[in-house]
C-alpha cells in the first residue's frame, strides 16, 4: 500500500501526474498500490489493472471508487464502506455478490455492475436499504431471472439498466417501489410476455425499451400505470397482435417503434389500427405479415374498407361487455369464462371498433389532432437515440 503524508506521495511519478492534472494533494489516508487517489470527494481510481480481487487499502472515507476493467470475481461484506457514493465495477468477472456487501450503504447513488457475464444470479436482499440509489447498471450480467423484491425500497432510483441479459420472465410487481424511475432498459433479453402487473407502480417512467426480446403477448392492461411514458420500443419481437386498449393508457407517448414483428392484420388488428390513426406522436412502420392479402402492407395505411368484412355483431357484443367493470366481469358468469385469459384478451381487441367507422383522414388533419411537425419530431428522435446509445 502506498501511503501519503501531509501532501507528499511516496511514488514521485504519481505525484507528477496528479500535479499535471492540476489536482491539489492533501492526502491523509492510504491509497492501494497501482491505484490513483485524490480528495474532495475522496476518490480511488483502480481501473484496468488486472486486479483479481478488491485491492486492499481503499480509504474508509472514499466516496467514489472506480474498479472497472479488472478481473475481480467476488464482492463481499467489508470490501467497501458506507461512505461510498459511486461504485463503478463494470467489465470485471464478478461471479458472486454477498447480499450484505452494500448493507446500510445509505449514501450510495450510483452502482455500475454491468458487463459481468458470469454473475447470473442475485439475492433478493442485495440492494436492500439503498435509499439514495439513483442509477443501477446490471446490463450484460448473464441474469436469467430476478428474485421478487430485489428492487424493493429503491424509491429514488431513476435509471435501471437490465439490457442484454437472458431474462425470460418478470415477476408481478417487481418494479412496484420504483416511483421515481425514469428509464427502464430491458432490451436484448428473452421476455415472451408482459402481464397486467409487470410494470405496476412506474408512474414516472419516461422510457421503456423492450426491443430485441421474444414478446408474443402483452396483457391489455400491461401499461396501465405508465401515464408519463414518452418512449416505447417494442421492435424486433414476436408480436402478431397488440390491442389498442393497451396503448390507450399511454397518454404522454411520443415515440413508438413496433417494426420487426410478424403483425397479423386481420379483424383483431382493428383496435391497434384505430389507435394508431389517432396517435399524435411518431411511430415506426407496422408491416403486416398475415393474412396473405395484407402481407407487406403497413397497418398504419390500411383503410376502414379493409375491415369491412369484420363482423359488426361481434363488435357490438364486445362494446356491451366492455361496459362492465373488471369486478363485474369477474363476478358475473359471462360466457367467456371457459376461455383462457389470453383468448379473452384477443377477443376484446375489437372493443374500440366503434370509433373506426369514421374514414381515415390524412396525417396532420385528423379531427382533434395537432398537425405534426415532422422535422421537429425527427430532431427530437435523433437526440433521444444519441442519448440512449451514449448511455449504453
Ligand atoms: C470468469 O469466470 C468464469 C467463471 O468462474 C471462468 O470460467 C472464466 O474463465 C473467467 N474469465 C476470466 C477472463 O478470468
Ligand atoms: C421520489 O419520489 C418521492 C415520492 O413520489 C418524492 O417525494 C421524491 O422527491 C422523489 N425523488 C426524486 C429524486 O425525484
Ligand atoms: C433484429 O434482430 C436481428 C437478430 O438479432 C438483427 O439482426 C436485426 O438487426 C434486428 N433488427 C433491428 C431493427 O434492430
Ligand atoms: C372480404 O370478403 C370478400 C368475399 O368473401 C373477399 O373477396 C375480400 O377479399 C374480403 N376482403 C378483405 C379485406 O378481407
TrEMBL record:
Pfam families: LRR_8. The keyword Glycoprotein applies. GO terms for biological process: negative regulation of axon regeneration. GO terms for cellular component: cell projection; cell surface; membrane raft; perikaryon; plasma membrane; side of membrane. Keywords: Cell membrane, Cell projection, Glycoprotein, Leucine-rich repeat, Lipoprotein, Membrane, Receptor, Repeat, Signal. InterPro entries: Cys-rich_flank_reg_C, Leu-rich_rpt, Leu-rich_rpt_typical-subtyp, LRR_dom_sf, LRR_TM_domain-containing. It is found in: Cell membrane; Cell projection; Membrane raft; Membrane. Residues 1-30 form the signal peptide. Residues 330-354 have a biased composition (Basic and acidic residues). Residues 326-366 are annotated as: Disordered. It is a lipid-anchor. The keyword Glycoprotein applies. GO terms for molecular function: chondroitin sulfate binding; heparin binding; signaling receptor activity. Its main location: membrane. PANTHER family: ANTIGEN BSP, PUTATIVE-RELATED (PTHR24369), RETICULON 4 RECEPTOR LIKE 1 (PTHR24369:SF196). This is Reticulon 4 receptor like 1. The lineage of its organism: Eukaryota, Metazoa, Chordata, Craniata, Vertebrata.
Amino acid at each position: 500500500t502506498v501511503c501519503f503524508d501531509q501532501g507528499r506521495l511516496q511514488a514521485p511519478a504519481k505525484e507528477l501526474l496528479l500535479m499535471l492534472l492540476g489536482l491539489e494533494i492533501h492526502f491523509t489516508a492510504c491509497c492501494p498500490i497501482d491505484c490513483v487517489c485524490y480528495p474532495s470527494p475522496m476518490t480511488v481510481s483502480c481501473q484496468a489493472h488486472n486486479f483479481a480481487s478488491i485491492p486492499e487499502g481503499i480509504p474508509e472515507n472514499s466516496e467514489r471508487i472506480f474498479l472497472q476493467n479488472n478481473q475481480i470475481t467476488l464482492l463481499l461484506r467489508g470490501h467497501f464502506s458506507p461512505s461510498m457514493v459511486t461504485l463503478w465495477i463494470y467489465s470485471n468477472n464478478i461471479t458472486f455478490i454477498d447480499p450484505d456487501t452494500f448493507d446500510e450503504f445509505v449514501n450510495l447513488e450510483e452502482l455500475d455492475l454491468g458487463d459481468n457475464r458470469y454473475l447470473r444470479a442475485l439475492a433478493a436482499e442485495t440492494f436492500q436499504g439503498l435509499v439514495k440509489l439513483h442509477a443501477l447498471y446490471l446490463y450484460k450480467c448473464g441474469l436469467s431471472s430476478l428474485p421478487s423484491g430485489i428492487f424493493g425500497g429503491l424509491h429514488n432510483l431513476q435509471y435501471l439498466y437490465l439490457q442484454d441479459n437472458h431474462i425470460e420472465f418478470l415477476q408481478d410487481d417487481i418494479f412496484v417501489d420504483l416511483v421515481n424511475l425514469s428509464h427502464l432498459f430491458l432490451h436484448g433479453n428473452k421476455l415472451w410476455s408482459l402481464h397486467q402487473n409487470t410494470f405496476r407502480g412506474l408512474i414516472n417512467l419516461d422510457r421503456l425499451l423492450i426491443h430485441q426480446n421474444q414478446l408474443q403477448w402483452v396483457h391489455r392492461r400491461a401499461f396501465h400505470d405508465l401515464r408519463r411514458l414518452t418512449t416505447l420500443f417494442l421492435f424486433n419481437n414476436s408480436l402478431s397482435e397488440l390491442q389498442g386498449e393497451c396503448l390507450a393508457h399511454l397518454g404522454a407517448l411520443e415515440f413508438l417503434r413496433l417494426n420487426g414483428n410478424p403483425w397479423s392484420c386481420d379483424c383483431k388488428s382493428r383496435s391497434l389500427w384505430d389507435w394508431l390513426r389517432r396517435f399524435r406522436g411518431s411511430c415506426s412502420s407496422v408491416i403486416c405479415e398475415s393474412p396473405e392479402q395484407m402481407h407487406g402492407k403497413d397497418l398504419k395505411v390500411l383503410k376502414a374498407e379493409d375491415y369491412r368484412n369484420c363482423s359488426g355483431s361481434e363488435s357490438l357484443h364486445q362494446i356491451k361487455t366492455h361496459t362492465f367493470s373488471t369486478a363485474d366481469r369477474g363476478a358475473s358468469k359471462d360466457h367467456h369464462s371457459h376461455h383462457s385469459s389470453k383468448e379473452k384478451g384477443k377477443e376484446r381487441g375489437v372493443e374500440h371498433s366503434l370509433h373506426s367507422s369514421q374514414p381515415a383522414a390524412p396525417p396532420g388533419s385528423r379531427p382533434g389532432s395537432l398537425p405534426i411537425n415532422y422535422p421537429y419530431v425527427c430532431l427530437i428522435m435523433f437526440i433521444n437515440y444519441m442519448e440512449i446509445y451514449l448511455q449504453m
